[in-house]
Specification:
26 helices; mainly alpha; 2 domains; 472 residues; 0% strand; globular
């Protein structure tokens, strides 16, 4: 794959999906006067519980998708069909379970309004199976357009529906929850056309119990892995809702997390675009190339986090026309760095996926997720919702320490990174980046421009010195 192809695919995976931000820029000044932190609190809590159930839905079967694509290139569609069939059954059961959990867990008075809200929040789970297959298929066949443009259409439709509900009908949090049903429906129907018809991947209800047991045996260890992601992202919401923290404070935290989460967009897009190169480098024991790919992704993640953190006050000033919601700016600037270690996780987990050693994945996400949950449980009652910010950052960054305690990852990291001491240097660089971002967020505009140019220049120097261009 050429550098031009990498840039093009990264553009589709990273920039095109975020064209919805352009639509949001137009609508935010119009709808934020009609939204409150309470509205974001309600939608955040609903999303956290639904996300928790959604993490169970795939049953870890997605591990068979990438592996079968490379191992059975002519017949992978049969494996994918069996996976799709099992996921569709799981989606129906998860939707029902999610509805019941929301009804009896959300601290609101039981009423028809609550029941309808829980139904609406649960329906999008039905769309997950086709979306999961699409998110794996199109990066592997190196055709980002169907995936990206379909999601873009659904997102824009969702934003427009949200705008109408909030601006014209003043429906508050309903305008944040309902659009997912309609946008998900459009995406699901288009993915059915692409996957079922164009690639001949249709649901197969497998009657061979032995094969189903084997698929689940390999996949189920990934369930805690998926739950770990949700604990990392949603522990604070789950704990705060059960501790009856004000929905206004939950809303500020959620809004800050959403804005800060945009920092990971570029890294995520890059890793998706070069996923085939990452797979091939490790499978061919090209550890030098694998290390260079990691340095590329980690450098992009750090530089993008620093730049977005520096410009966060200006971003808020431009996008958010609500004084209450602007209080979350300091949260967003910190949360820019919560998942700056995404690249390290991606390169640490790839060997475990390839080798089907899925139980090892528990260390990468489930343990940090539980750590986040415990920290939130201990410190939120003492320090309030602000404690969730630091517990989330600590939990994410704890992934860097895994190779020091787990032999499987220690041996693996030594093979491609060279030495565990480099992890210490990476941690120190990330910490320095966080401090620089926080300090420079309050400097003058002209100085921010200079710092941004210096950060980008630093990346170009690392790109040349580590000869990253040779592996893409």
């Amino acid at each position: 794959m050429s550098s031009a192809k990498i840039i093009k695919d990264s553009f589709f995976y990273g920039v095109v999906p975020k064209l919805t931000i352009f639509v949001s820029v137009i609508t935010l000044p119009l709808i934020t006067p009609f939204l409150t932190p309470y509205d974001y609190g309600i939608s955040g809590v609903l999303g956290s519980y639904s996300g928790l159930i959604g993490a169970l839905l795939p049953l870890g079967l997605n591990v068979h998708l990438t592996n079968s694509f490379f191992e059975l290139p002519r017949h992978y569609n049969l494996v994918w069909g069996r996976v799709l069939g099992l996921m569709l059954v799981s989606a129906l059961l998860c939707m029902i379970a999610n509805f019941l959990i929301l009804v009896f867990t959300i601290p609101m008075v039981f009423s028809a309004k609550l029941v309808l809200l829980c139904v609406v929040a649960s329906i999008p789970l039905l769309y997950s199976p086709n979306s999961i297959l699409a998110s794996h298929l199109f990066p592997l066949v190196q055709k980002p357009q169907p995936l990206v443009l379909t999601n873009l259409l659904g997102s824009v439709l969702g934003i427009l529906i949200s705008f109408v509900m909030i601006y014209f009908f003043h429906l508050g949090y309903w305008g944040l929850v309902v659009p997912a049903v309609f946008s998900g429906l459009i995406c699901n129907q288009l993915f059915v056309k692409y996957i079922w018809k164009d690639y001949h991947i249709r649901p197969i209800l497998d009657h061979k119990i032995k094969r189903i047991k084997w698929m689940l045996k390999v996949g189920l260890p990934l369930v805690p892995h998926g739950l770990g992601f949700m604990f990392l992202a949603s522990s604070a919401n789950l704990v705060m809702s059960q501790l009856h923290v004000s929905y206004d404070e939950i809303g500020l935290y959620n809004h800050g997390c959403t804005m800060g989460g945009y920092a990971v967009i570029i890294t995520s897009a890059l890793q998706t675009a070069i996923a085939p190169q990452i797979q091939r480098a490790y499978r061919s024991n090209d550890y030098i190339g694998y290390r260079r790919l990691y340095y590329l992704c980690q450098s992009v993640g750090l530089i993008s986090s620093i730049c977005i953190c520096i410009w966060m006050p200006e971003i808020y000033s431009f996008l958010i026309r609500n004084e209450e919601l602007r209080q979350s700016c300091s949260i967003a600037s910190l949360m820019c760095f919560s998942n700056v270690v995404m690249a390290f996780y991606g390169f640490l987990s790839t060997p475990a996926f390839i080798e089907k050693n899925t139980p090892q994945l528990l260390w990468l996400v489930f343990v940090p997720g539980v750590l986040n949950f415990m920290l939130c449980l201990i410190f939120i009652p003492i320090f309030g919702y602000q404690a969730a910010i630091y517990s989330t950052i600590i939990a994410y960054w704890s992934q860097l320490m895994i190779p020091f305690f787990v032999k499987y990852y220690r041996d693996n990291v030594k093979s491609w990174l060279g030495s565990l001491s480099r992890i210490v240097w990476i941690l120190m660089i990330l910490l320095i980046g966080l401090i620089i971002g926080q300090i420079c967020a309050s400097v003058d505009l002209w100085l921010k421009i200079i710092l941004t140019l210096l950060a980008m220049s630093s990346f170009l120097i690392v790109y040349r010195q580590k000869r990253m261009y040779e592996v893409i």
